[in-house]
Amino acid sequence: MTGSYEANTDQDATRQPPPPVSLMTAFLYWLKLGFISFGGPAGQISMMHTELVERRRWISEHRFLHALNYTMVLPGPEAQQLATYIGWLMHGTLGGIMAGTLFVLPSLAILMGLTWVYLVYGDTPLVAGILYGIKPAVTAIVVFAAYRIGSRALRNGALWALAAAAFIAIFALNVPFPYIVLSAAIIGYIGGRVAPDRFRTGGGHGASAGSYGPALIDDSSPVPHWARFSWKSTAVHFMAGLAIWILAEGALYLAYGWQGPLTQMGWFFTKAALVTFGGAYAVLPYVYQGGVEHHQWLTGTQMIDGLALGETTPGPLIMVVAFVGFVGGWTLEIFGPDSLLLAGAAGASVATLFTFLPSFLFILIGAPAVEATRHDIKFTAPLTGITAAVVGVVINLAVFFAWHVLWPEGTQAAPFSGRFEWFSLLITIGAFFALWRYKVGIIPVLGICSAVGLVYSLLV
């Protein structure tokens, strides 16, 4: 009888929405996420879905996917923007800034420390062995994330077909990501008019409640007062963001002149944040061209090493810009040969500030309009189409990772040349099954795989 009573109590609890979340509780969660958000954008989005939608039920799946659809359209890091959106929806402007900042700050600190180690000590067997195990684990995390997002976002054959078409377009035809997004939005808009039931976000009203129980911010929850669109709020946020940019870039200009390295970093990373759509992998070619070829802040080899560090640290993968800024400040000795660490930290901080500032503005200015159109199929159907296409793009990302991990000597001309890393394949398969079948957390999986990789590299 006692067991039956406890089971009924648990069931009753899941039928009730969770209690209101304090700002401090949200602060602690976003801080924790900043330290454990491994796996790139796909893994981070999957992690937020598991924690916020399934376990804590702070937000319904419909509201989560609607926010995700919007961030997918924006230039910049979609996972960080999604965290900002949810934090804003829960606690207003302060909550959004808090969530987005905490998503980035731990990564910035960790990456600066690792970059310093990289520049001072270079390659070591210890670091190489750990990376050998982590890279296939990251591949498994991305594959698992594609499975999780796809199983929830692709509710019918039309959306599956759209995801498959997006994968073929980017994998086989090399279609740029912005064109894929635009095409998916057009298809979604047309589909929303021709077959609206197939293009409803999250499977329609009440879908999440049936799966996980009522959420604090549920499908039918009214929009909080701070999330209602107003021209005054839009103007205030825009002017505040513009003022921060002018003060920061103006201070660098007055201190170092327009051609000063830090001033140029501020301007360059502002452009990178505004003109690059498609997340981290879309921004990398632009950053490579500007940082390596034009400004010569670092070498091509260093850029590749920076990407490896970015893949194996928490936070958005676009944080590789902090690596570029750190190496640039260090290499140019902007504060003299005796202050290399300070120069690197300044470069990384400038790169991070100017890269992420527009991301906050996109959410704080645009999210109220997105919330106002949440139930309008004319606006939600294109976003649903975009999410389906992004699933295909994430699968392409998984293939990209797998190729570089399993055939590390492969090139574009001969992708399967060189040795095949069979042990990396075993680590990838083991990590995927640990995540999928046994529900092991991402941090334990990364820890175990890094240890296995280190032992194997030392033995061979």
| CA-CA gap between termini | 58 Å
How many strand segments?
Answer: 0
Shape: globular
Order of helices and strands: HHHHHHHHHHHHHHHHHH
Structural class: mainly alpha
Radius of gyration: 22 Å
How much strand?
under 5%
Largest sheet: none
Low-pLDDT ranges: 4-10, 202-210
Oligomer: single chain
- How confident is the prediction overall: mean pLDDT? 83
The helix content, as a percent range, equals over 70%
The number of helices is: 18
Please tell me about this protein's structure:
This protein has 460 residues and is mainly α. The protein is built from 18 helices and no strands. The protein has helices at 2-15, 23-36, 40-55, 61-73, 78-121, 125-153, 157-171, 177-194, 207-212, 231-256, 261-275, 280-294, 300-311, 320-332, 340-372, 377-406, 422-436, 442-459. Helix 11 (261-275) packs antiparallel against helix 14 (320-332). The longest helix has 44 residues, at 78-121.
In brief:
With 460 residues, the chain is mainly α. It has helices spanning 2-15, 23-36, 40-55, 61-73, 78-121, 125-153, 157-171, 177-194, 207-212, 231-256, 261-275, 280-294, 300-311, 320-332, 340-372, 377-406, 422-436, 442-459. It is built from 18 helices and no strands.
Features:
460 residues; mainly alpha
Write the layout of secondary structure elements.
Layout: H1 2-15, H2 23-36, H3 40-55, H4 61-73, H5 78-121, H6 125-153, H7 157-171, H8 177-194, H9 207-212, H10 231-256, H11 261-275, H12 280-294, H13 300-311, H14 320-332, H15 340-372, H16 377-406, H17 422-436, H18 442-459
Helix pairs in contact: 2-5, 3-5, 3-6, 4-5, 4-15, 4-16, 5-14, 5-15, 6-16, 6-17, 6-18, 7-16, 8-16, 10-11, 10-15, 11-12, 11-14, 11-15, 13-14, 14-15, 17-18
